[in-house]
Amino acid sequence: MTAQAPPPPPAVGEGQAHRLRTHDLPYPLVVAAAWAWRLIVVAVALAALVAMLRTISLVVVPIAVALLLSVLLWPAVRGLTNRTGLSRGVSALIMVIALITFVVGLLTLTGTQIAAGMVDMRASAEQGLGQITDWLRDGPLHVSGDQLQSYLKTLQNSLRENQSALTSGVLAAGTSAGHFLIGMLVSLIATFFFLAEGDKIWRFVVRMLPAPAQEPTYQASRRGWVSLGSYARTQVLVAGVDAVGIGLGALVLGLPFVVPLTLLVFLSSFIPIVGAIVSGAVAVLVALVVKGPVIALIMLGVVLLVQQLESHVLQPFLMGKAVALHPLAVIAAVAIGSYLLGIVGALFAVPFLAVLNSVIRYYYGQDQFPDLGTDPMPAATVDEHRDPKAEHHVQDVEDGEGVTSGRT
Length: 408
Fold this sequence. Notes:
The chain is 79% helix and 3% strand. The chain has 408 residues and is mainly alpha-helical. A two-stranded antiparallel ribbon has the order 1-2. Residues 381-408 have low confidence and may be disordered.
């Protein structure tokens, strides 16, 4: 009986054998090193991107604001165009003028109320500070009058010593105000062009990509646009509920500056989590200074009630369906955005993450908006390039629907 030869050793893949021969290292270590240097490259690219965004923030931020304004105003522009027969350019101009009129009117009302209530505010503030002083002296803290005088004197000395820093801060605020006005002008101009020619601008950008990537990019961008619109409209609704609730509470309690407080709550609510805390703290502080500790506690209860309504009713049912993001992802996005880009990062972190989520899910075959279908990207015709006034058809996407509109 002949002895059988031992079985051959298990086959090793050609690539793995080559790696073992060339590096003479354990294969898991080779894989870990490959992942490591790729992650380092990605981290360096992201760091460079953040640095670039900080450098050109005076342009990037107005463009980002213009995108949010465009996605909010687009339903009105489309409805005005369909009902009146006006061109998209004229409808876009009308809506931008209406937006400017609304904002200017709101700011005028706010400034008028602040100017009219400043005298009463001063008297109420003196009375409120007296109540706070009495509470500190006679309340559970039992702060003596000498201690209060010492604290006030320390505060005055601190202000006097830091007068130059305060002056430079005022000058910096003036410079920031100038940048804000320039950014607002850029944002309004960009909003008009996005509403009037946004489809042509995006098609031009997509056609610069390689041909195999154009159609997937176009389809993914449609999903991102719808997701951005859902987020923006839902956030406006949530911010409106917060502003109305806290504003009514301030009105019932007889606080001054109800309109400015309501506007502050509305604007700050666009920064998830952090904005609601800051605006609520301002409302409670005004109540404390003007009306004393008791009214401040009642105002605190109103703020907490409104915020609980937002966090447990509005956010889960509305925002969760709009952006399909886990609350932990929202918190992490706001924290990372605020750390990297400050208040701007906190403001745009969630909408950016919502768009990115829709785009990535589409690329991986998990379409978040299957009702959009796969309408092909409108192809540019020869006549369109030769004659800008030639009639052509474009594909507009809004509210989860593809709408084909003729345009001259």
